[in-house]
Amino acid sequence: MAMLKNKVAFITGAGGGIGRGIARRFAREGACVIVAEIDEHSGRETAAQVDELGGQALFVRTDVTDKASLLAAIDAGVTRFGGLDILVNNAFVPSANVLLEDKTDEMLERTLTSTVKASWWAMRAALPHMKLRGGGKIINFYSIDVDVGAWLHADYNTAKAGVVGLTRSAAAEWGRFNITVNAIAPTAMGATFHKFAEENPGFAERAAAMRPMGRCGDPENDIGPAALFLASDLSCYVTGETLHVDGGLHLPGYNSRPEHIATREY
Fold first, then answer.
1. Which of 15, 26, 86, 156 is an S-S bond match for 37, by CB 3.0 to 4.6 Å?
2. Which listed residue (156, 237, 254, 266) is catalytic?
3. Active site residue 237
């Protein structure tokens, strides 16, 4: 039996990469998927794939940095499918890879908005609908970049650390509604990975070698099953957890210091 039959999932940033991989995996398990994506072309592509794989899809153009846009997308999904069971807060807006001292307030604000604030807005909007269903599943996203203090990602690291705080707080408070709230810390071959691989010969091989599993993750086949676990009844007694789905990369970690940065500067 399909594990998500008759379940309704709202996935932000579902137009590509990990978001699309999760949407496709959920579709194979019979879910109704609300594809919340700012890029109309990629969003409609994902929606078409969901339909082809056995799910039901609704594409809603969504800007997660705009509260009204995000709430309207949730309302549209609930109107179309009659409720909401699963929320996947995957989308974020990247900023330029520059040193902490060169990050601007605008970069920080946009990164915080697209991650912490967007997750906060979506979770609070989803709550009444999940309560009506007798419970729900919320999946947020953390990053190994926080653990290693990844260079050039100071705003992103700050935001993702905040997401864990939000995840744990919601898990503690919303268990009384039979809502589980967990986070995934993934690494996978999304659009950014493929861009780096094209521009930097040998990048893919080096990335694979860093992981104990010896390979890089696939959005649908490696990250998708972890999301499916957290979205299904299999995880009914799991909440407040952060699950690393990275082929073991979190064990050795990695050195992100750019080669051109001097050891000591005055």
1. 15
2. 156
3. no
